[in-house]
Each structure stands twice: as structure tokens, then as C-alpha cells.
Design a protein that fits this description.
12 strands; globular; single chain; 215 residues; three-stranded antiparallel β-sheet
């Protein structure tokens, strides 16, 4: 058993009025991208805000053959794919609210699948009085899972998930290199999915799965 603090710990200073959460909802069936933004106001005054967002593609990243340097440093394409025009909202003191940004995709995003793990990023910002006061970066894939007549579908294509599962063992597994090695062995064996068993894994296990086409 692992006892005590076993993941990274940090303190993050945030403004009283901030973006608490960004939840990206790819809706392939309706051909639109929905971005649900939770705004928190911990000040003593009503906050008048403009919520804006921009979406860019992540440039392709090649994982080194040696499997050692597996910490990718993604760069974003220069040209935005979408710019959300923004929503003007007010948030009462010591309250939070949710606003949703929606944009039609119209073929501007390539789908994420197990053979083509295309990834994108959205940067949502808050503006007060014409000044940007907070921002939040979130990655996502343009994909949609469904169950139809007992079968599993990814982007309207029937898919069989061949997955592996492993119980988290603590400190030895706290590197992206471990996640990469595990997923590479899974892919080499013909697998395309993973079940992160029994507990919340570090976030980078989800990130590496996204990068390697693992469901």
C-alpha cells in the first residue's frame, strides 16, 4: 500500500472571479461543438463578464522510437479554427453560473479515432471592462461514442473495444513513460482500449491515451 501524499501537490492562485471548469462536448450528430463553461464569483460584488473562446489544432507529435522521452511538447497551429463570439453574462456575488458556447463545425475538425488520434485545444477567457482577467486551456478530440442495438459505435462506425486493465500500484507508475510503455504493449498486442481500474488515475494516463489512440 502507498501511504501519504503520492501525487503532485501544488497551490494555484486564482482571481475571485474565475473560470472554474470547461467541459467540451463534441456533438458529431448535430455537427456542432458545445463548450460548457462554469464561472465562479467569490467576490462581494456582481460581476459583469464577457466569455470568449478560441479553438486551434494541435500540431502532430511523433513519440521517439526509444520510448524514453515521452513528454510531448505540443504546439498549436497559428490559425484559429473557431472563435466563439462570446457571451455577456452577470454572476451574482458568491455564486457561480454555467454558460454554453456553441459553434457549427462544418468539416473544420478531423475526427479522433484509434488510428488517427487528432487532438484540438480550446482556450476560454474572461473579460471584465475590456481586460482579460482569467483563462483556461482544455484539450479535446472530435469524437462521439454511442450504443446502438447492443453494439458500441465510435463516430457512427461499429467498434470492438479490446482492452486491458491494471490495478494502480502507486509510485512506480507516476510517469508518462510508464503509461506510454503500457499502452504501447497493449497496441502491439492488438488492443485499442484500457480500463483504469479501481481508483482515479493521474490525469496524464488519460492524456497519453488520447495521444496514442487508446479508448
Amino acid at each position: 500500500n502507498t501511504i501519504g501524499i503520492w501525487q503532485d501537490v501544488y497551490l494555484l492562485g486564482v482571481p475571485n472571479v474565475r473560470i472554474k471548469d470547461v467541459f467540451v462536448q463534441p456533438d458529431l450528430s448535430a455537427d456542432r461543438l458545445r463548450v460548457q463553461v462554469t464561472i465562479e464569483n467569490r467576490s462581494e460584488q456582481v460581476a459583469s463578464l464577457d466569455v470568449k473562446g478560441v479553438t486551434k489544432a494541435l500540431k502532430p507529435y511523433s513519440i521517439p522510437d526509444d520510448g524514453i522521452q515521452v513528454v510531448p511538447h505540443y504546439e498549436l497551429e497559428d490559425t484559429p479554427l473557431f472563435e466563439f463570439t462570446g457571451e455577456h453574462i452577470t454572476v451574482d456575488a458568491d455564486m457561480e453560473t454555467i454558460t454554453t458556447l456553441v459553434v457549427p463545425v462544418s468539416g473544420k475538425l478531423f475526427a479522433w479515432d484509434t488510428h488517427h488520434p487528432n487532438l484540438y485545444a480550446i482556450f476560454v477567457t474572461l473579460e471584465q471592462g475590456g481586460k482579460t482577467t482569467d483563462g483556461k486551456y482544455t484539450r479535446f478530440g472530435w469524437r462521439e461514442f454511442k450504443i446502438k442495438n447492443g453494439d458500441f459505435y465510435l463516430n457512427d462506425h461499429k467498434i470492438q473495444i479490446k482492452a486491458d486493465s491494471w490495478h494502480f500500484m502507486g509510485i512506480p507508475q507516476l510517469t508518462r513513460r510508464y503509461a506510454f510503455a503500457w499502452y504501447k504493449a497493449l497496441r502491439d498486442a492488438g488492443g485499442n482500449g484500457v480500463r483504469l481500474h479501481a481508483m482515479p488515475y493521474p490525469t496524464f494516463y488519460l492524456e497519453v491515451a488520447d495521444e496514442m489512440g487508446i479508448c
